[in-house]
Amino acid sequence: xxxxxxMGGMFDISYTGVGNAKAWHQNHLVGASCFSYALFGLLxxxxxxxxxxxxxxxxxxxxxxxxxxxHIEEPSHLAHKVDRIVAFLYCATITYGSLFIVNxxxxxxxxxxxxxxxxxxxxxxxxxxxxxxxAHTAWHLLPPLxxxxxxxxx
Length: 154
Fold this sequence. Notes:
Distance between the termini: 43 Å
Shape: globular
Largest sheet: none
Oligomer: single chain
Structural class: mainly alpha
Strand content: under 5%
Mean pLDDT: 91
Radius of gyration: 15 Å
Helix content: 55-70%
Order of helices and strands: HHHHHHH
Number of strands: 0
């Protein structure tokens, strides 16, 4: 029993978009949303002088933009493999930073991680360009925003 079909290749660095690449397209909203990692990361980590974490969020945004905007219509391009590797490292980085630098609770971080995985899954399962645009933009924007919100409202 494999979870890969359910997760849409989430754990496959070589995933080429089989099944939903027809929905992938160069979209300005998706392209702009790639920079949410840097924006929210800088807001989270610069005030706490966590420079390496802040830098990694900028690198994540650059890799995301390279893959999800510049080369989105070329599913086999190297940018997508780089983006996936960077994204896994971002996940580890943002989890560490959220727990130990920002001091968010394990429960809240778990909620955001599950929410992010569900948004990723929705993006991978998109069958139309509009579905993909909304799901992928949400995947980029909402989890980092959710990590920033507790600090805004405390």
